[in-house]
């Protein structure tokens, strides 16, 4: 068996399949994808200065959102009819992936979403904190407050 997702176009990361609520994309480097014969894996770096980015980070951190869904078009599949006691099994052999979504009620219960903290995000947080402190200090100086 080969991996199902290959040669995908610019893939989006969305909040609950909503194209009006993008969280990242492969072309901007804010979404990394990897697939193998077992499954699809992604890393997302949402913008924590946007409402949707903060929602994604907060709800995944608390595990209010802990699963994912995907938007794709199947290009090759097979079916295993099994025996009379089983439902037919659809085997997706190849598909074009359009989007990955963080979802409160995911289509695929076997998926998981969790928060990790990268060195880059810690650097960004420290830089943001420095900028806020500098702004407060500048505002105080302008008002004559030491």
Task: Write a structural description.
The chain is an alpha+beta fold and 146 residues long. It folds into 2 domains: 12-115, no CATH class; 117-146. The protein has 2 helices and 6 strands; from the N terminus they run E-E-E-E-H-E-E-H. The protein has helices at 51-61, 119-142; strands spanning 12-15, 18-25, 31-35, 40-44, 67-80, 89-103. A 4-stranded mixed sheet has the order 2-1-6-5, covered by helices on one side. A two-stranded antiparallel ribbon has the order 3-4. The longest helix is centred in the C-terminal third of the chain and has 24 residues, at 119-142. The protein is elongated and about 80 Å long. The termini are far apart. 16% of the residues are buried.
List keywords for this structure.
single chain, 146 residues, alpha+beta, 2 domains, 4-stranded mixed β-sheet, two-stranded antiparallel ribbon, 2 helices, 6 strands
Question: Which helices and strands, and how do they pair?
Answer:
Layout: E1 12-15, E2 18-25, E3 31-35, E4 40-44, H1 51-61, E5 67-80, E6 89-103, H2 119-142
Parallel strand pairs: 1-6
Antiparallel strand pairs: 1-2, 3-4, 5-6
Secondary-structure element order, N to C: EEEEHEEH
Number of helices: 2
Distance between the termini: 68 Å
Major beta-sheet overview: 4 strands, mixed
| Assembly context of the chains | single chain
Strand ordering within the main sheet: 2-1-6-5
| Secondary structural class | alpha+beta
């Amino acid at each position: 068996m080969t991996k199902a997702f290959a040669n995908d176009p610019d893939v989006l990361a969305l909040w609950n399949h909503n194209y009006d609520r993008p969280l990242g994309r492969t072309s901007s480097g804010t979404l990394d994808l990897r697939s193998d014969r077992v499954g699809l894996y992604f890393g997302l770096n949402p913008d924590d200065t946007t409402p949707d980015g903060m929602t994604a980070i907060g709800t995944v951190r608390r595990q209010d959102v802990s699963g994912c869904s995907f938007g794709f078009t199947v290009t090759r599949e097979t079916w295993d009819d099994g025996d009379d006691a089983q439902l037919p099994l659809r085997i997706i052999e190849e598909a074009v992936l359009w989007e990955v979504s963080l979802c409160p009620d995911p289509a695929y219960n076997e998926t998981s979403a969790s928060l990790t903290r990268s060195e880059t995000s810690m650097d960004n947080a420290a830089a943001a904190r420095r900028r806020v402190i500098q702004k407060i200090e500048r505002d105080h100086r302008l008002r004559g407050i030491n």
